Amino acid sequence: MKAEEFLNLLAAAGYDFFTGVPCSIIGDVILLLEKDPRIPYVPAVREDVAVGLAVGAYLGGKTPCVLMQNSGLGQCLNALTSLNLIYKIPSLLIVTWRGYPSKTDKDAPEHLVMGKACTKLMDCIGLPYRELSPKNVAKSIEWSREVTSQRQIPVALFLPRGVLE
Amino acid sequence: MKTTAILKTIMGTLREELVVAANGRVSREAFTLKDRPQNFYMIGSMGLASSIALGLALTLPQRKVVILDGDGNVLMNLGGLPQIGELLPPNLVHIVIDNEAYGSTGSQATISRKVPLEKIAQASGYPVVEKITEEKDFKLALERCLEKKGPSFLLVKVGAEEGTEGLPRVSHSPVAIRDRFIEAVRRS
User: Which CATH number is associated with domain B3-187?
Assistant: First the structure.
């Protein structure tokens, strides 16, 4: 899928405040956001700052989406557990999946531990997630809107390499 | 100078401003002195009051947003200052009550005893920066910061003080804090 199509799906689903920290997997989406006057994008200095910004935007009436690499997920655990999950403040987290468990395609060493652990971390704290594939992007974004509005908690969509062109 | 006296002046001065209060003493004192729906008490997520408030200020440019922060919180998310300084929301007022200690955990020292937070704010790009060391100067400084085009940074160096034992905790549930805050945003 092209970055533009991905962004259009998110915007069509109602996400209207974007923030985050770049990853090469989602770099083109962020480049588009930086140029797009329709949708605010705030480049954050750290992933938990992005989660905090998204909380403020939600309180102000927006439907926020946070973009980050899975290496930033650890940085966000306190924000997610002691802010979003207890105040019931939703956000869509698009988490790029470096260190994706694979026998043939080894990622850089700094990504391997988190690559194995990131979805288990979500299970541990009770945060719903799905893995994006080229076929389920639109459905998963729809699912994220359903869960965030019904349960009022954040959800994560994990994005491995290869889903976006 | 004591945190209670400073917060009493703040809570007595505020009208419709939205407030994000940092966890620990700041939230508990603000709650005890003047509980209001426009107060978002952050009971966890230490460091993020400035980030939550920035998200609010960007989303609601017509509303004044006040951060009631502490030195421990600011130091934990120092990147939050240039984040504000780069975006320059004019409707944001960042008040830091600096007792040079982690008040809720037994008043262990923070590094703000030696590190000048006002200089970091200045270097980060806040167009208005004030540092207050005497209580008599506070009210006017607060009024200036609320009136001027921000973001403004008001550092209040309070002295060492008693711990937080005996100070009530925020009794609203987190979801209740959220609901009444959102309601207050919508009403105006």
Answer: 3.40.50.970
Q: How far apart are CA A68 and CA A70, in angstroms?
A: 6
The single-letter code of the amino acid at A66 is V
Q: What is the structure's pLDDT at B34?
A: 97
Helix ranges (H only) for chain B are 3-13, 25-33, 49-59, 71-76, 80-87, 117-124, 138-147, 174-187
Which candidate in B59, B62, B73, B175 is best for mutational testing of the A interface (most A CBs within 10 A)? B59
Radius of gyration of the CA atoms of chain B, in A: 15
Which amino acid would we find at residue A69? Q
What DSSP element (H or E) covers A162? none
The tally of domains found in chain A comes to 1
Tens digit of each residue's pLDDT, chain B (188 residues):
899 999 999 999 999 999 999 999 999 999 999 999 999 999 999 999 999 999 999 999 999 999 999 999 999 999 999 999 999 999 999 999 999 999 888 889 999 999 999 999 999 999 999 999 999 999 999 999 999 999 999 999 998 887 788 899 999 999 999 999 999 999 97
Tokens of B144: 């200036």
Tell me the residue range of the domain where A142 lies.
16-159
- B interface with A, Cβ–Cβ < 8 A, is 20, 40, 42-48, 50-60, 77, 79-80, 82-83, 87, 174-175, 177-178, 181-182, 185-186
Q: A88 and B178: CB-CB below 8 Å?
A: yes
**Which chain A residues have a beta carbon less than 8 Å from that of B53?**
56
In this prediction, residue B18 carries a pLDDT of 98
**For chain B, domain boundaries:** 3-187
